[in-house]
Design goal:
With 269 residues, this protein is mostly beta strands. It has 2 domains: 145 residues, Sandwich (Immunoglobulin-like), CATH 2.60.40; 107 residues, Sandwich (Immunoglobulin-like). 9% of the residues lie in helices and 46% in strands. The strands form 4 sheets. Strands 1-2-6-5 form a 4-stranded antiparallel sheet. The chain has a 4-stranded antiparallel sheet with strand order 4-3-7-8, with no helix packed on it. Strands 9-10-14-13 form a 4-stranded antiparallel sheet. Strand 9 and strand 10 form a beta hairpin. The radius of gyration is 25 Å and the shape is elongated.
């Protein structure tokens, strides 16, 4: 789920927006001067009014949540500050901090006094589930933080990479050709890598090389229109003389995902 930041006319309206927290969390700033505090801070704190920013988007992919936004200290507008973030709640929350110093020309255009370098992007790796995601602008002097937004991330279950080992053949001069196709349905626009093992499965091969499944395969797209045509691979590899199996694995785009064995074929070199 991705939510884009509105263009705000001035800092007053921006601070008013920051008092709203997605998912129904109560923020009592308007009533009693209290805020939802950053991890490690007491809830009964008054935020530094010079801090500003916004959590622009929260994007959920299998195994990960990506946060993007911006933050600044209007008292020192040309000096980047840190932001803290939390994905989840309670003892199991994933928390951390990042420097808000990425280029954001849209922020500089909306608030010329701040400059262009106050953006941040953070990727947090998590298991499937629904998570509250919040971010805070941190006071560089060590004072209270200011919340810059909360959203909800729904992280889907990872789908393993798939494909097929079509051919393994000797092409002479102690070389073989290995071809097939592979795709991760969670990231169909991003080609996956494949691992090619000569002599057996992973851990039992005498040689291993990698290839990228980004070649045109219109025949595959005709059968699986949703994935598109650019998922083929073909590699020419030096090999030892003899007869042995060649095994190919498709690597999952999820950092903790297991590789999928596409098959093993024997070849005589």
């Amino acid at each position: 789920m991705t939510t884009q930041s509105p263009i705000l006319s001035n800092l007053t309206s921006l601070h008013r927006l920051h008092r709203l927290v997605a998912g129904g969390a109560a923020v009592l700033a308007a009533a009693v001067g209290l805020i939802l505090a950053a991890p490690g801070q007491s809830n009964a704190v008054t935020p530094n009014p010079a801090l500003t920013g916004h959590l622009d988007s929260v994007t959920a992919l299998p195994g990960q949540v990506k946060l993007s936004g911006w933050a600044a200290d209007t008292a020192t507008p040309r000096v980047p500050i840190n932001v803290s973030y939390s994905v989840g709640s309670g003892a199991g929350a994933h928390t951390g901090a990042a420097r808000a110093h990425d280029l954001r020309t849209d922020v500089g255009q909306a608030f010329p006094n701040l400059g262009n370098y106050h953006g941040f992007t953070v990727t947090v790796y998590v298991s499937p589930g629904t998570y509250p995601v919040c971010a805070w602008a941190l006071d560089p002097t060590g004072g209270p933080s200011r919340p810059i937004g909360c959203q909800t991330a729904r992280v889907p279950v990872d789908r393993s990479a798939r494909g097929h080992l079509d051919v393994v053949r000797s092409i002479g001069a102690n070389h073989i050709q290995v071809a097939g196709w592979a795709v991760d349905d969670d990231t169909v626009t991003t080609p996956v890598s494949v691992g090619i093992y000569l002599g057996g499965t992973a851990g039992h091969a005498y040689s291993a090389v990698s290839a990228t499944a980004n070649q045109s395969r219109p025949d595959v797209a005709a059968v699986f229109p949703a994935i598109g045509p650019n998922h083929g691979f073909s590699a020419t590899i030096a090999a030892r003389p003899g007869t042995f199996p060649v095994c190919v694995y498709a690597n999952d785009s999820y950092i903790f995902g297991a590789a999928t064995l596409l098959g093993c074929l024997n070849v005589t070199v």
